[in-house]
Design brief:
Blueprint: H1 4-7, H2 11-14, H3 17-31, E1 38-42, H4 48-53, E2 59-64, H5 67-76, E3 81-83, E4 96-101, H6 111-121, E5 122-132, H7 134-137, H8 143-148, H9 161-170, E6 173-182, H10 190-199, H11 213-221, E7 234-242
Parallel strand pairs: 1-2, 1-4, 2-3, 4-5
Antiparallel strand pairs: 5-7, 6-7
């Protein structure tokens, strides 16, 4: 996994910035139930999405485990951020109307525990909103994907939609209609794909047992238009409503 303490300084700039954050926030808000008053954004990072969620009248809070991320988020949400593990939230049972977890579940091996904790803090009728199948959203059918696709790990993605739905059901969360949004500004170039490969950005799916990162980097470097961005990814947001 990436070092998110180190990533904080350039996270927004390298992840699509405001356009991507706007798209993510708008998509989350489409799934928040009418009448909801409170929302916790788990793994809020720099708070760039969280702050946009708070512009609607919702009382929005952010939680993150990385100090550096949280320092930035605290500037965007004064008095409404907390350092916390998503598996052990410092909140009482049935205290929130919504929990969002954007770009989190694909990174961890303990997604079931995060789902269980979200269910604990949600009131009946509350909703968990989370990105699922995140890595698959980056496969846009480009020439870059044609090179990378055969080397995706055979291991099951921790945020696979059917698995998250199963975990949710075990904790009283029923599936509800979801939505999609575009990761604006995240269309990869071959040159950037090489950089990300070497920096470990693809660790959640790259199967280093089948080929070396050097071999993949060489194939990517041979592609034409090294600095032309390919299509932006398209992310899937799933929603799960807590039973009454």
């Amino acid at each position: 996994m990436l070092d998110y303490e180190a990533e904080a300084a350039h996270y927004d700039r390298t992840r699509g910035g405001v356009p991507r954050a706007d798209a993510a926030a708008e998509a989350v808000l489409r799934l928040v139930p009418p009448g909801a008053r409170t929302l916790l954004d788990v793994a809020c990072g720099t708070g760039i999405v969280t702050e946009r969620l708070s512009r609607t009248g919702l009382r929005v809070y952010g939680a993150d485990a990385a100090h550096a991320m949280l320092r930035t988020a605290a500037g965007r949400l004064p008095g409404r951020t907390v350092r916390a593990d998503a598996r052990r939230l410092p909140l009482p049972d049935a205290s929130l109307d919504a929990v969002s977890a954007v770009w989190l579940l694909h990174l961890v091996s303990f997604a079931p525990e995060i789902v269980a904790e979200a269910a604990r803090v949600l009131r009946p009728g509350g909703v968990l909103i989370a990105t699922v199948d995140k890595d698959a959203g980056h496969d846009v059918g480009s020439d870059i994907d044609a090179i990378l696709r055969p080397h995706r790990s055979a291991a099951v993605a921790s945020d696979r939609a059917d698995l998250i739905t199963r975990h949710a059901a075990l904790h009283g969360l029923d599936p509800a209609p979801g939505t999609h949004f575009t990761g604006h500004g995240q269309g990869s170039t071959p040159r950037d794909a090489v950089r990300k490969l070497r920096a470990g950005y693809f660790a959640s799916w790259f199967d280093g047992a089948t080929t070396s990162s050097d071999a993949l980097a060489a194939a990517l470097a041979a592609l034409p238009d090294q600095d032309r961005p390919r299509d932006d990814p398209r992310y899937r947001l799933a929603a799960f409503v807590k039973r009454g």
